[in-house]
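Handout, section 3.2

Students often ask what a structure token actually looks like in practice. Rather than define it abstractly, here is a full record for Hydroxymethylglutaryl-CoA lyase. The first block is the sequence as you would receive it.
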Amino acid sequence: MDIALVEVSARDGLQNEPELVATADKIRLIERSIDAGLRRIEAVSFVHPQRVPQMADAEAVMAGVPRVPGVSYAGLVFNERGLDRALAAGVDEINVVVVATDTFSRRNQGCTTAEGVERWRALAKRAAASGLRRTVTIAAAFGCPFEGEVSPSAVLDLVHRVAEAEPEEIALADTIGVGTPDRVRTLVAGTLAAAPATPVRLHFHNTRNTGYANAITAVESGASVLDASTGGVGGCPFAPAATGNIATEDLLYALDRMGVTTGVRMDAVADTGRWLAGVLGKPVPALLGRAGPFPAPAA
């Protein structure tokens, strides 16, 4: 079995850090991820710099990343201005977020969910005409920090609506880390039924220590793409207590032991996690960099 990984440390991993990370360090993080074998990198977010100051250097990051055959750079896009910037910066793919609840959508993007769907449709049309790969992410698909439970039926109705704009990938995001494997099975199965020709991608946070169980369940349920963040860093500036993403190195350990092929070097990612802890000046949540792999490499 094969699974594709999208490395999100440079974007979702860093966006909630209180101290600005130097552009050069962001570029080095991306370079190290590529060296480890990661081939899809969510590198930047084209959001207003006053909203997310950590992403204010998106153009500078994209100007400095290596252009390696087979490596695809993604940017998060919220509106037409963001797409203009993404096109000018030379990303290979865009990720457009549609939030599953109105309250969170207004706080995160300044629009209702219905308005978010219309934004996605317009952005998808322009991006397709420009030759960009298009992912639509349904945020808060497993629960909302403001409205509470989000019903699977509401999420799957949203899947039908966003699928009409022909995304090349539909992602379901557990933005605040409240998901459990049973809900993962329901939503993955429902999304595959609603859009059978479209790959399904999952984005998990480990806020309540269910992220890895959810990721494995997603793979077993038919998802073909998983997001992960080196070091397990990350969070959403607009979602209270939305702590780190699942760690790329810890996820790789589980997948490797299960015989799932990713093409990514687990040891190299763990090394980058330790390096990133130095950049941030604090330990990262990932555990593999401390515990090491099993069995231990031969001396």
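Discussion prompt for tutorial groups: The longest helix spans residues 113-129. How would you have guessed this from the sequence alone?
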